[in-house]
Amino acid sequence: MSQMSATGSAYAEDGFRVGRVLGRSFGVLGRHFVQFLLVTAIPIVPLAYVIGVELVSAVGVKHPDPTAMARLGLLMMAAVAFWGVAIMIAQAIVLYGTFQDMRGKSMSFGEAIIKGFARFFPIIGLAICTLIAVGTGLMLLVIPGIIFGLMFYVALPACVVERLGPIASMKRSIALTKGHRWKIFGILILIGLLSGIGGAVIATVLTIVGGAKAMLIGRFVWQAIMGAFGAVVVAVIYHDLRAAREGIDVERMAAVFD
User: Residue 160 domain-assigned?
Assistant: First the structure.
């Protein structure tokens, strides 16, 4: 039995563990911090500009120009749309880098971008389908939306790694997360607490030291960091769920990238 097969068997024996997911995710992010940060910062840039510059400058205007307000609304919608598409591609790029790290292989930044865009249209279709499902669930007293979000949590890795279509990826995610959704929910709560507390501390300190602009820049960087960490966590969870359920090792999972 190879070392990788032995690793897969070990995961199958002791199952899906929260501590291991978080520990490995921090390790992967630490080894590729700059690359992953750059990838997840790009989707936020237009949104940060609209909120931090355009929207802030419009606040407090007693008699706003209707044309200017309409332009601001269009800019906001465009920025949100760009973020929704770009963040999915960014997560696919981070997914590739995470799997390369877990395989003990070096990550080429250019190759990671190519791999991320290779599944562009299925990823867009998946984003639309999950947005409709989760959004509908959130409108139905919130709780169904949270449940749907947990059910579809690893749909993106399934789409990229297993080359599935949008609906097939969602079904695959439902099957993989079954029995582990409370653990995934706990991981997301911990990440949310880290993001919220860290963001509040950064905003307070930078506001005192450098004012509003420094605070906005600091929040932007922190959001990019948490976005990178969240993308790594998704990849690690997907890997660990498959390893625990199927006894499959990372080399077999990531063979699609070779």
Answer: no
Maximal C-alpha separation, the chain? 74
- For residue 50, tell me if it sits in a domain: yes
What tokens were used for 160? Answer: 């990229």
Q: How many CB atoms lie within 10 A of CB 72?
A: 17
In a domain, 205, yes or no: yes
Average pLDDT over residues 156-183: 95
Whole domain around residue 244: which residue ranges?
A: 12-107+179-257
For residue 193, being part of any structural domain is answered with: yes
Domain count for the chain, please give it.
1
| Per-residue pLDDT reduced to its tens digit, 109-148 | 888 888 888 899 999 999 999 989 998 988 887 888 999 9
Q: What are 195-212's pLDDT values in tens digits?
A: 999 999 999 999 998 887
Helices (H), the chain: 3-14, 18-31, 33-41, 44-49, 56-58, 66-102, 109-118, 120-139, 143-151, 155-161, 166-177, 181-246, 250-253
Q: Do the Cβ atoms of 98 and 236 come closer than 8 Å?
A: yes
pTM for the structure as a whole? 0.87
Amino acid in position 151:
M
Query: Phi first, then psi: what are they for 39, rounded to 5°?
Result: -65, -45
As a whole number, the mean pLDDT across the chain is 86
